[in-house]
Amino acid sequence: MNLVIVESPAKAKTLSKFLGKDYRVEASIGHIRDLPESASAIPAKYKKEAWARLGVDVDNGFVPLYVVPSAKRDQIAKLRSLVSEADRLYLATDEDREGESISWHLREVLKPKVPIHRLVFHEITKEAVTAALDHCRDIDEDLVEAQEARRIVDRLYGYLVSPLLWKKVKPRLSAGRVQSVAVRLVVERERARMAFKESVWWDLLGTFARQGGDEAFDARMVELGGRRLAQGRDFDPETGNLPADKHDLLHLGPADAEALRGRLTGKQGTVASLERKPYTERPAPPFTTSTLQQAANGRLRYSARRTMDLAQRLYENGFITYMRTDSTTLSNEALGAARDFVAREYGPDYLPPQPRTYKSKVKNAQEAHEAIRPSGASFPRPGAVAQALGRDAEKLYELILARTLACQMADARGQRVTLELDVEEARFRTGGKMLEFAGWRRAYGVSAGDDNGDDDKDARIPELAVGDRLELRALAAEEHKTQPPARLTEASLVKELEARGIGRPSTYASIIETILKREYVRKQGNALIPTFTAFAVTRLLEDYLGHLVDYSFTAVMEDELDSISLGKMDQRDYLEQFYNGNGKPGLKDTLARVEPEIDPREVCGITLGTWRDQVVEVRVGRYGPFVSMGDLRASVPEDLAPDELRLEDAVALIAKAAAGPRVIGKHPETGQPVYAKNGRYGPYVQLGDPGEGPDEKPKMASLLAGMELESVTLEQAMGLLDLPRDLGPDPRSGEPVLANNGRYGPYVQCGKETRSLPEGTSPLEVDLAQALALLAKPKERRRARARREPLKVLGPHPESGAEVKILDGRFGPYVTDGTSNASLPRGTTIEEVTLDMAAEMLAAKASAPPRKRGGRKKAAKKTAKKAAKKATKKAGKGRKKKS
User: Fold this and answer.
1) How far apart are CA 202 and CA 205, in angstroms?
2) Rounded to whole angstroms, how far apart are CA atoms 839 and 844?
3) φ, ψ at 475 (rounded to 5°)
4) Residue 747 annotated to the active site
5) Distance in angstroms (rounded) separating the CA atoms of residues 532 and 627
6) 392/839 Cα distance (integer angstroms)
7) What is the pLDDT of residues 820-876, one digit of tens each?
8) How many CA atoms within 13 Å lie on the side-chain side of 448?
9) DSSP state, 703?
10) Does the model's pTM come out above 0.85?
11) Of the candidates 426, 472, 480, 479, the residue with the CA atom closest to the CA atom of residue 206
12) Which position among 23, 157, 302, 322 bears the catalytic label?
């Protein structure tokens, strides 16, 4: 028996189709061992070592400490048993560094006594697998060392720099070699938006047509009396002014534009020039990992993680070639398949005489792979993908197929038309493209390199000649404002990282996922918005550890890792230089030097300006960002983007906080003041001041949904403070029926039985009859009870047919089919969730092992019981006080 080991069960299932009964295919289910992730994972004999927490012996050649996670022990035992029965072992993990590393770990852990062969293929087809079996090789130790060096550098970076962030910024932060640079890119874009000064300019838009003709077109004024009108690109984004070298431009204001409109209205236009230039557009190269992520984000609105997950499934099921690649090369087999497809579907006119070839423009090209393309010598049809993997995967496959075909099709051809018209001394201009032969655009649709999903708009200009007279049918004065630099999206961040040679495209999805999870960045639509925490962390790293977030440093590191993979650089020498330095301080000495120099108050502050001689700044605190001015402070709303917080906004927040709580009135019996206040957990009312009355701590009560802090009345406040309300006794048990407002909203209670109040029913107004009717109903699950409108209805589940929708839950949005629930991953917006994606999430949740119940749960139950007793006691006090 020949044993073949791959990474995933899906890949194993597909590979089994092409191998005979003499082969057994099993999955390692990803990595089988790694550096320890926690103190509990460190073996007892190493726990006292100074380097144990790092998992790398930095004093003795940077030897890593690899441990097998408990979740992988059963699988390893199974693989060992199979290896003992096998005649040969084939390690068929992916062909990149990480795949090579997994194969090496399998060999080291399983210690097979049978011949070992490294099986490498870039697509899972019968032909590719058969060819790979005929050309097996040994494990490439240089590739393994390069991957190990990357893993060790990332561990040293993360485990040594992150604690510095905990001390100087706030707990639970993390730093990373590529992660921190990605955050810096997003922060720099937001800084540019914050520094941006808006400019306004005006121009005229005219509607022209032939005398008595029906076909009208628009043209915009660009010159007046020979002087070009200032446009958005002419203004300095940081000052909002025209630079000195552009003072000769004409900057129209509203009065100028309106006066000009009045003077030119009713005049005739004359064609001053008409230029037609032929153009050709070449197709873009076939997809690499990076360009696939960009195109899928722009066209399909898929996140980088979603794209890579779907691409992984397409690869493992034999529909596309390996999806982690920097290469734009296509094999002869692929070229033949693409050209046959084009000739058959579009005709011979769409085929160039010779196959097209492309050269990679990536700075740090990975090991030689083929570009991402449909697999095989005859490309699979999209319908087969939909049937096997769903519509989302089909759409991504269609995109890959279209790009592969387009890159082997003829150029698109057309004419660029530029038309200039004169109305007295004012010149108007319009233009556009007129497509004459679609070429590759028949398959791919948009212009080369443009994946925003919008086709070029062809101008509709009638046949005209210089000197023709035209009617000016309408003329409008229009105001324009300069726009700040666009925020980075996942696609543009990926593009920036790749252009600078930072990291590997195969890791970009996990990097973006990490910065979202760590709350350095949040998504608003498709845009990535940095948090104030990201500003503080980036400033600390820039000011004190600048080389670690320097773009060239990170790119050079990729070159050095490539040198290790090619056997040109020694791994230990490289790690020694990174950690201990080589003529200049390494990471260890640099951290020791800068830690005492870092002032948390300095790095955690963003100065907004000066107000009445006092500095106003945003600061990052333990419980979130706040604005400060002298001794005054105010919290910053969570959903406020950094570029939206201006000096005047900060001053207004501080003024509101400084005004203190609003005094609603006085308690009718005790005379104590009643306040409306805003706290960490939202708006609430408070009776009295600390130290007054029978209790040292004043009584407080949260506002109900729909109540506003500025408008809550004394009567409402007293009602809230008097909760729980005693509605009367239960006719059957005699126990009191109470109405109250709790952590999960308003509810009624009788003994141990509780029921949530329906939406719109207030605990201040519910009566005994309503409460008894609710208590008489069977208790429902909390989520089933909340009959809110769904945030989005996705459609029937592909297997069960049950309606799948997104609801808003206690911990945020989640998908449900009425039986299972699955929370949306952090950073995933409601808009980008599709039916297929939701079905996958629900399937993953259903197949996940049940959570173990241990001592911690019992302790939590005891705590809950204590809290319940305390609440009952407090409710009794409230009733006694009221009577």
Assistant:
1) 10
2) 9
3) -145, 125
4) no
5) 11
6) 11
7) 898 888 778 887 888 888 888 888 887 766 655 544 444 444 444 444 444 444 444
8) 19
9) P
10) no
11) 472
12) 322
